[in-house]
Amino acid sequence: MVSRDRRGAERRGRRAERYAALWLQLRGYKLLESRFKCRVGEVDLIMRRGQTLVFVEVKQRPVLSQALIAVTAKNWARISMAAEVWAAQHPKAANMDWRYDLVAITPRSFPKHYRDFWRP
Amino acid sequence: MIARITTFSFDGIDAKPVDVQVHMAGGNQPAFTIVGLPDKAVAESRERVRAAFSAIGLALPPKRLTVNLAPADLPKEGSHYDLAISLGVMAVMGLFPADMLDGHAALGELSLDGQLGPTLGTLPAAIKALDLGLRLICPEVCGSEAAWAGEGNLAAPNLISLINHFTGRTPLSCPPPGEIPASAAGPDLKDVRGQDGAKRVLEIAAAGGHNLLFCGPPGSGKSMLAKRLPGLLPPLSARELLDVSQIQSVWGLLERGQLSRQRPFPAPHHSASMAALIGGGVRARPGEVSLAHHGVLFLDELPEFSAQVLDSLRQPLEDGTVTISRANRHVRYPARFQLIAAMNPCRCGGGQAEAACRKAPRCAEQYQARLSGPFLDRIDIFFDTPPVTAVDLTLPPSAEGSLEVAARVAMARDAQNDRYHTEEIQRDNRALNVDADGDMLEKFATPDADGQALLADAAVKLSLSARAYHRVLKVARTIADLDGATGVKRIHIAEALSYRRRPAVDTRTSNRSALAY
User: Fold this and answer.
1) Interface test with A, best of B1, B24, B28, B50 (most A CBs within 10 A)
2) What is the DSSP letter of B10?
3) Nearest CA to A41 among A83, A95, A97?
4) Cβ contact (<8 Å) for A99 and B32?
5) Closest residue of A to B30, CA-based?
6) CB B455 within 8 A of CB B493
């Protein structure tokens, strides 16, 4: 994995996100949008379960501990701002409880889902 | 959905009820905010509550939690709001019905693992809670302290036990009051060889609660005598004990709810600042004078204290309270104490003819001039301790110890109590000769004709101020009480007058003339 070029990383990232979305859907979450991008930031997956709106960040790393520290507070703040933008476009979101989750993808194991991983 | 519970904020030793209201609303970003003028320690409560919840396996719901501390315009400080906030949050989360918190007050600091840690001011809060008809929930380590206020308080070791209590699984029981450990015998008056005059003076001061100043050369046993004063005083009564313990509770001196019947005896070093002695600082904490409430304040090396600090003692000496006024605070602390001070006659020690100061009398004059007239006016008894000679030390110890003297003091105090308990001079649950005002003195301490003549004569010759005149009467009344006499006679007045202050120069000139011989 020495020459980890940008395009390869993008492809692996997309695959991890699809994997995570599938995993969460199996657990009863409904996928509303993936790869939401706007000027202030982006959200990997936007999902819903009952009255809870979940903004998911997916991280793929060789080791779990690396995945857990991969998202900095600054990144979360960008995700949170993007969430606000998304909610502005979807009026129903305002009445739901928001949550920020992390899904860690590591080789040869199931995705690990961390609920309420970060709070503003 | 709203849950509410009472907690307390402290204004001096007064606990003021604070209503903690927790509101949870769905929708939008999750948030946890505390409003109602919290200071840094209160705002940090958020993080402690969050960590404690996750430690016991509870997740904060992804909702907007708003905690309001009402009245919202009163600044809140301290870490003791944690428990009330977390109970309110647990109620809105639906762990137990919110109305279970009705009739409860809570006080306690959370640690990150959900345990409840010790909190200052549990006793005043428990007393206030009892007044308001609330049950106080406090940390287990403070339970025995709260139990002194009355029955019905709850002490919880951690958050889980509180959840179990409110869901009815394992109800908590009321803690028993802490113990009053048998006070260790202090130093005994027997240890002091010679100095019979000083012992007599100490007995008078103890009996009437008079302020006392020992003046004498180094090594004459001034500090030794002063330290034996608490041993002569009767133990604290129940009411006094509660007063003293409330101050100690705010200060954090009560360990495991153990109260002590021993009278407090703070002896601050002469480098003490005004804030240390009177009280103050950022949070307007009580000072040494308040810690000495119902006890003795001992100031060793009196002139070494800064003049400003000493003069700030004038108001508490007169009123028995201190009022600390700051831009944002106005706090009143009780400070009814007895002042015992010790000093050398001059800067270089001096006093004994052989070792007398070479700069006499100017040195002594300057040294004693550090004490202001109005301050000295408030001292009832001045006593010059003579130097102890080698002969005194070879004498056998006196037969009379602290016990015998304390018995006489107790009798004299009983006499004063019988006399004053019907009168209106009871101040802070104390009725002593020092507290008597002009009318009372006229009624109870008017000397016989001989005594009156002597006093009138002395008042002119010594140019006594009105306050000094009354102080002489008070001391004379105490001496009469020790005698068991009903009226004040000439001999009592004479002894009381002998304890008035003599000007510094007088003693020095007499010493100088002694040298000349």
Assistant:
1) B28
2) E
3) A83
4) no
5) A98
6) yes
Q: What is the pLDDT of residues B264-274, one digit of tens each?
A: 999 999 999 99
Among B347, B308, B349, which Cα is nearest to B222's?
B349
Count how many domains chain A has: 1
What is the SS3 assignment for B368?
A: helix
**How would residue B259 be classed by pLDDT, with cut points 50, 70 and 90?**
confident
Name the closest residue on chain A to residue B64, using Cα atoms.
A97
Residue ranges of domains in chain B, CATH in brackets:
2-166 (3.30.230.10), 189-498 (3.40.50.300)
How open is the CA angle B185-B142-B169, to the nearest 5 degrees?
A: 140
Q: Select from A114, A116, A117, A118 the residue whose CB has the most chain B CBs within 10 Å, as the one to mutate to test that interface.
A: A116
Out of A21-35, B358-372, B402-416, B449-463, the most confident range is A21-35
Residues in chain A: 120
Q: Are A98 and B30 inside 8 Å of each other by CB?
A: yes
Q: Are B262 and B251 in contact (CB under 8 A)?
A: no
Tokens representing B264? Answer: 């407090």
CA distance B252 to chain A (A): 36
E strands in A1-120: 30-37, 42-49, 52-60, 97-105, 112-118
Report the residue of A97, A113, A117 to disrupt the B interface, i.e. the one with the largest count of B CBs within 10 Å.
A97
Domain encompassing residue A74: 6-118
Q: Is there a domain that residue A1 lies in? A: no
ipTM of the complex as predicted: 0.73
Cβ-based interface (< 8 Å): residues of A facing B: 51-52, 80, 83-84, 87, 94-99, 115-116, 119-120
Q: What is the CATH number of the domain that holds A53?
A: 3.40.1350.10
Question: What pLDDT, in 10s, does the model give residues A1-58?
Answer: 445 578 888 889 999 999 999 999 999 999 999 999 999 999 999 999 998 999 999 9
Residue B432 phi/psi, 5° resolution?
-125, 170
Out of A84, A96, A116, closest to residue B59 by CB: A116
Work out the end-to-end distance of chain A between its first and last CA atoms, rounded to an integer number of angstroms: 35
CA distances (Å), origin B329, targets B81, B279, B315, B432, B471: 20, 12, 19, 32, 35
